[in-house]
């Protein structure tokens, strides 16, 4: 039974990636014999991507934060010498934090076009156990071309990309494809971190990490879905014309971009058409801006002519006219009220006269006739202000 040591799931939630290596499927390179070489493609590859010598950086200018060392540097050798590899660390000891020294975890890969999937895989490897010393192996150009295929970045660029990742403590250049016991003992490796997908190798090997899983020296990381070096290359290939036009506009030559003469002219013509379109849009935007400015001027002039102060003055003038008209109407109404008052006074006088007549009649006639007259005739006389004939007839 193969023993696969699973990492702490709390450390892996939402993150993780493979090292960037995939099952070899590059046509044209034999995989059966690991010693088989194909010198001509390798020479062509190295000619196109020359191996750069590591440049010297004055790290005295950067005393607080520096890139991690290579395995051959003095700092890495000092760490290696201080490690007592006779004290082997089990998985339980490493997880519980009971290890008497730093746990040396190794992760390997191509790391071409270093992206967030690579960084998250190294983050997981760094946090697999407490107090981890993370060693990262990066394969060189020749081995990568033979086992996987052509890369975008050369070995020097890939080394530098990984050694500037903050999770990495040490870089092993020219890392092997298959990890042997000699390599593990040389670098005093306790555990190897990689995704759990079976990974084939030369000689028909189904999983190059099978012997490490059987010995309990393997810890699994998780891949980041949706991102890989192949996906990034596919995006570039998909938008090939756009990227070529972009680099031509930035000063690259057709020879540097491996573009034919006719293709170059086509791309430059497309760039020129886009430039004219941009100019047309700028002119149109300028016209719109000037039109908006003119519109604002017209609105401002209108407000000055018919603004708040002008409207207030118009209102005051209109108010005065309305008040004068209202005053004349009120005087006419007052006259009408006076005439109605005089009419009421005459009515009061007439009622007083009727009262006196009724008193005389009451004294001369009998009480019954007086009461009858008072009940029938008097009310009619009081309701009609202009009925002297009725009064005279009664008398």
Walk me through the topology:
Layout: H1 9-12, H2 39-48, H3 74-82, H4 91-96, E1 103-109, H5 116-126, E2 132-138, H6 141-147, H7 155-163, E3 170-173, H8 181-186, E4 191-195, H9 210-214, E5 218-221, H10 229-238, H11 240-249, H12 261-305, H13 308-364, H14 367-383, H15 388-394
Parallel strand pairs: 1-2, 1-4, 2-3, 4-5
Helix pairs in contact: 2-6, 11-12, 13-14
Strand content: 5-15%
* Average residue pLDDT: 75
What is the structural class?
alpha/beta
Low-confidence stretches: 7-18, 22-46, 48-54, 364-368, 381-395
Radius of gyration computed on alpha carbons? 54 Å
Shape: elongated
In words, what does this structure look like?
The chain has 395 residues and is of the alpha/beta class. Helices cover 54% and strands 7% of the residues. The protein contains 15 helices and five strands. It has a five-stranded parallel sheet with strand order 3-2-1-4-5. Strand 4 (191-195), helix 9 and strand 5 form a beta-alpha-beta unit. Helix 2 (39-48) packs across helix 6, helix 11 packs across helix 12 and helix 13 (308-364) runs antiparallel to helix 14. The longest helix has 57 residues, at 308-364. The chain is elongated. The model is unreliable at 7-18, 22-46, 48-54, 364-368 and 381-395 (pLDDT under 50).
